[in-house]
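Tip: read the tokens left to right.
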């Protein structure tokens, strides 16, 4: 059954916006977790991985870290597999002894095979130093699987950190910013698909934006569309709270303008999350 534009926007608002709060945009919609942290516990659980988990948790991005999210009695592989398959972004924290752990490599292979967006972090190690070694615990098939996953992620743009000289607070800021950017990009792509299902009629456009309690949609007789952030619309400064505008004519459709408005709303979400990060 096709969902109405109003229901689509209300569902988006429930997951992405928090109209009753001080800042209308609070967090990224997610299943059980949005960000899976892949790491070697002995190396980084009490340092980088633990700090990054706490930072993302404060931003309400629902990170998953085995030592924090699992409880006695949970089946290890079942919970890990579910978390990886349901997450949106995987963060692989590579440390000097990362490749000694079969379990780390198993998680990495599953992340890559599930086609998740991956952000590698090279903590006190260079990509060229990461190699899968045959220590007798893995089958030939597993060694091939792990090597393929490792080679793929080694050639993915990531972040590097030297624990002896690096600025921890600055690194956490950079890492969380990269994660937020990737989450927002995935949301933009998903909403482009939804926008394609919205008819380019004014009633549908109005109904779509009616579900966004945090935003005000206005349309003038000449076809101009404007979207404002409600909390800033009435401020004295001209243009404050302004999100996007456009004018429908023969070359620009209403759907194109609405699409730009949604993209700006998502960018707005990233900016607010960034401001929350600075405050906290």
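Filled-in amino acids:
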């Amino acid at each position: 059954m096709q969902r109405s534009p109003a229901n689509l926007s209300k569902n988006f608002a429930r997951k992405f916006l928090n109209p009753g709060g001080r800042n209308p945009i609070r967090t990224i919609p997610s299943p059980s977790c949005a960000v899976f942290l892949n790491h070697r516990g002995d190396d980084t659980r009490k340092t980088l991985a633990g700090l990054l988990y706490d930072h993302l948790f404060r931003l309400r991005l629902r990170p998953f870290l085995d030592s924090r999210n699992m409880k006695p009695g949970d089946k290890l592989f079942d919970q890990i597999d579910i978390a990886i398959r349901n997450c949106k972004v995987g963060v692989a924290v590579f440390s000097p002894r990362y490749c000694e752990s079969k379990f780390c490599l198993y998680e990495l292979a599953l992340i890559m095979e599930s086609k998740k967006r991956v952000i590698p972090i090279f903590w006190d190690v260079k990509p060229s130093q990461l190699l899968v070694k045959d220590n007798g615990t893995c089958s030939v098939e597993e060694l091939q699987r792990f090597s393929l996953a490792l080679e793929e992620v080694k050639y993915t743009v990531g972040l590097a950190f030297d624990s002896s000289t690096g600025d921890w607070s600055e690194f956490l800021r950079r890492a969380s910013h990269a994660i937020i950017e990737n989450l927002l990009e995935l949301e933009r792509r998903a909403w482009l698909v939804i926008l394609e299902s919205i008819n380019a009629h004014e009633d549908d456009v109005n109904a779509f934006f009616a579900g966004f309690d945090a935003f005000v949609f206005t349309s003038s007789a000449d076809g101009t569309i404007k979207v404002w952030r409600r909390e800033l619309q009435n401020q004295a400064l001209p243009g404050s709270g302004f999100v996007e505008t456009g004018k429908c004519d023969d070359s620009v459709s209403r759907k194109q303008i609405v699409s730009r408005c949604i993209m700006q709303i998502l960018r707005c979400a990233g900016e607010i999350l960034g401001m929350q990060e600075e405050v906290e």
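Residues 12-31, 231-244, 272-280 have pLDDT under 50 and may be disordered. DSSP finds eleven helices and eight strands in the chain.
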